[in-house]
Structures are given as structure tokens and as C-alpha cells.
Amino acid sequence: QVQLVESGGGLVQPGGSLRLSCVASGSIFGAYAMGWYRQAPGKQRELVATITYGGNTNYVDSVKGRFTISRDNAKNTVYLQMNSLKPEDTAVYYCTYRMYWGQGIQVTVSS
Question: Is the predicted pLDDT of residue 28 greater than 90, yes or no?
Fold first, then answer.
């Protein structure tokens, strides 16, 4: 079993920044990718960004140039730095590792 715990969400004004963190614990082994998904009210869950164990990254077009995913393998932690936030980034953000999901954390962008 693997547990994923997200932190760092909250309310921010448009143009602001937030940094999400996700710590994985439990049966962590092997070199697997980690990622972030999000789900806005009334919308399907979408992939935001992924990062391989070696650090290769991929982003959905809507966040390219604004979000940065990174990881610290020694700490089993993945981060999502979110800059220039927009109201449309409002969603519950989920951390993923293999088939495991975090509980989700709310990000609200509003003035």
C-alpha cells in the first residue's frame, strides 16, 4: 500500500502563486513517474503534469509556461509550482503514483 498526502492548496488571487506538495509513504520502490491531476466543478478530471523518476516532464497545454512539476526522490515527494494563476485553474488537485491517488486538495483562484 502507498499513501499520498497533498498540501499547499488554498485561496489565491488571480496572478498569484501556490506550491503544492505531495509526500508518498508506504511500499515505495522502483522508478515510477508521479503526476498531478485536477478536477473542476462539473468537469472531467484532467492530467495537469507528470514527471518521470529521471526528471522528464510533461504538461497539459493550458498550464505550460505557468506550472512547474518537480520531485525529490530521496524524500518521495513531488511538487507543483503554480504561477500566474487564473480563475480557470480552480479545481481539486490530486497527486498520483502508479495506481494510487491522494485525497485531493482544493485550489481556488478568485478575487
Answer: no
